[in-house]
Design goal:
The complex is a heterodimer of chains A (156) and B (280).
Chain A: H1 2-13, E1 27-31, E2 35-37, E3 39-40, E4 44-55, E5 61-64, E6 69-74, E7 77-83, E8 92-95, E9 100-110, E10 124-129, E11 132-133, E12 152-155
Parallel strand pairs in A: 2-12
Antiparallel strand pairs in A: 1-4, 3-4, 4-9, 5-8, 5-11, 6-7, 6-10, 10-12
Chain B: H1 2-14, E1 16-19, H2 31-52, H3 58-78, H4 83-104, E2 112-117, E3 120-125, E4 132-137, H5 138-148, E5 154-155, H6 157-163, E6 166-170, E7 176-181, E8 184-188, H7 202-233, H8 236-242, E9 245-246, H9 251-260, H10 267-278
Classes of the chains: A mainly beta (156), B alpha+beta (280).
Chain lengths: 156, 280
């Protein structure tokens, strides 16, 4: 009985780790800095981050410039914080093999609106998910696990 | 309802916070300074009680000071930020706090001890007929109900089992990432379990708050329990209540201290910040 209680306690006594972010071999999506300062005003909250995207593969990759999705860590799990709804691959940028580019993505949340409530209090740990494809039209997309950035912090 | 508020509001005010903003954080102090302060606090507490009883106080001061170093050792272990460290550190500090009370009352070495376990306090008295008696900590129980009824708050079983304290996860709406109210801990659900500077990691926040819980234990054992025992001896109702319930009568002192000292200047915040930083 005592052994069962102890083993039960041990099994739940480990704190849950941060949900892992997939590692990509084809693309490297790195935030320029480990953290940025977010802004919270009476009407909005926002932040922006510059990413360096490197194509480590052998084929050109096309980045959908109109799309970005940010996920925020809540109780060690990644939850959707913001996502654009523009038509896919209307504006693209080519990343040739072995080439690194920089892009700046920003997120703005208007207070009181129903979307992106997780960003209302801007501080936290985030990761970005971009949309990339092997053709300009976006029909041959790279696997989802290759499209995540490394996590970065947003402070106040 | 009004009576309930009268009890709950002071509990909320007496709580200690771990704030996210580094610029506002209390300055760290060295381990040596904290050791000396804890020893002095143990010594003066024991010495004052003995002096108030009209007994020689120097021996009590020495015993209390030695016990104060044990309290510090426990809190230092809490700063290591692992589950065994949180458990062992808090219990070791509680034994040290109990020994301060023993010295204060002129009792033999480790005759009594009070160990915290969630909302309970396990009273051990080697000379009593009933050697082990669990009692409900009234302040912790009220704090638990108050926190549990907050919007978005949820009981964190992993964190509670890991630390031995009652822990709740709460939504983060300000720069406050943690809070300890009468030994009941709340922690922001945004705190990551890992190193993502400048965000404060979950383990660091938990260590900070468990140090506060340990400080609460000291106030309880060295001051509150002794005051309750003294009152219970004079009143039959007090004796009956004291068999089952602990009322931390030192709480108003802690409340007053929090009310008159700014967050950054509070010595207990500086200690918690410094000890939690040890485990990073």
């Amino acid at each position: 009985m005592a052994a069962a209680i102890v083993s039960c306690a041990v099994s739940v006594s480990c704190l849950e780790s941060v949900e892992p972010t997939p590692e990509s071999t084809v693309l490297s999506i790195q935030p320029l800095t480990p953290y940025v300062r977010g802004v919270e005003t009476a009407t909005s909250s926002r932040f922006q981050m510059e990413f360096r995207i490197r194509n480590n593969g052998t084929r050109p990759v096309y980045l959908d410039l109109a799309y970005r999705r940010f996920e925020k860590l809540v109780d060690q799990r990644w939850e959707l914080a913001a996502e654009t709804t523009a038509a896919p691959f209307t504006a693209v940028r080519t990343i040739q093999p072995g080439v690194q580019i920089s892009v700046v993505f920003s997120v703005v949340h208007t207070r009181g609106s129903s979307s992106f409530e997780l960003i209302e209090h801007v501080r936290g740990l985030y990761r970005a998910r971009l949309r990339l494809a092997y053709n300009p039209g976006g029909t041959d997309q790279v696997p989802v696990e290759d499209s995540y950035s490394r996590p970065f912090a947003v402070t106040e | 309802m009004r009576r309930c508020l009268v009890v709950v509001l002071p509990l909320m005010l007496v709580s200690s916070d771990a704030m996210a903003q580094v610029t506002d954080a209390p300055q760290r102090v060295s381990n040596a300074t904290m050791l000396v302060v804890n020893a002095a606090l143990g010594g003066f507490t024991a010495g004052l009680w003995r002096a108030a009883a009209g007994k020689p106080s120097w021996t009590a001061f020495g015993r209390g000071a030695a016990a104060g170093t044990v309290v510090f050792a426990g809190k230092r272990i809490i700063g290591e930020a692992t589950s065994p460290a949180w458990w062992f550190g808090r219990q070791l500090a509680a034994v040290g706090s109990s020994e301060v009370a023993n010295a204060a009352q002129g009792k033999p070495f480790l005759q009594t001890a009070v160990l915290p376990l969630g909302p309970l306090r396990i009273h051990i008295d080697r000379s009593a007929r009933r050697k082990v008696s669990p009692r409900l900590d009234l302040a912790s129980s009220i704090a638990t109900i108050a926190v549990a009824s907050q919007d978005g708050s949820r009981f964190a079983i992993r964190e509670s089992v890991s630390t031995g304290a009652i822990v709740f996860l709460v939504p983060e709406t300000s720069n406050e990432v943690g809070r300890s109210s009468a030994g009941v801990v709340t922690i922001s659900e945004l705190a990551p379990d890992g190193k993502f500077p400048p965000l404060e990691g979950k383990r660091s926040v938990l260590s900070h708050e468990i140090v506060h819980a340990s400080q609460y234990d000291f106030g309880f054992s060295a001051w509150g329990d002794a005051m309750q025992s003294a009152l219970a001896k004079r009143n039959s109702w007090g004796r009956r209540i004291s068999s089952f319930v602990d009322i931390n009568l030192a709480l108003p002192i802690q409340l007053g201290a929090n009310g008159i000292i700014d967050y950054e200047d509070r010595p207990w915040e500086r200690e918690a910040v410094s000890l939690a930083a040890n485990g990073r």
